[in-house]
């Protein structure tokens, strides 16, 4: 992957980053914006490349090893946790501290959507249903829509800007 960081509004180039990749995934900033995390691939292993966000200098690499490792679908910064990122796979969210290079915990059923304070997340399987889960303990707090067997459809969920409401779109019913 080849990334160029530019200043705004004049567009002057600050630095360039290069690292090997297997699948194209977004480079993300940690929630405190001090580090950039690049999901890459080195020596046949999934690797996270950690860069300084101001200078572009590579700080270190993390070879991904944690319990029940699966190829992850997306990577996101954990809100209010300065150096933590979440790797979201088909079954769970895996939280990793990129500064200490340690696996923190897995959150079963988490699909990556969470409140701005990082306390609650959403679980919406493709077969239907919607649950609010506690991200600290991984437990279901409330079931908004019960699970029903109606096939597998595209489901989009998110919190609104103030975290008061949840949006749930069902691709089969178009609602």
Give an overview of the whole structure.
- The protein has 175 residues and is an all-beta fold.
- Helix content is 0%, strand content 47%.
- It is built from no helices and 15 strands.
- It has a four-stranded antiparallel sheet, with no helix packed on it. A four-stranded antiparallel sheet has the order 7-8-9-10, with no helix packed on it.
- β1 and β2 form a beta hairpin.
- It is globular and about 50 Å long.
- The N and C termini lie far apart (38 Å).
- This is NWD2 C-terminal beta-propeller domain-containing protein.
- It comes from Allacma fusca.
Overall 3D shape:
globular
Q: What is the subunit arrangement here? A: single chain
**Alpha-carbon distance between the two ends:** 38 Å
Percentage of β-strand residues: over 45%
Provide the low-confidence segments as ranges.
Answer: none
Helix content: under 10%
> What is the tally of beta strands?
15
Radius of gyration using CA atoms only: 18 Å
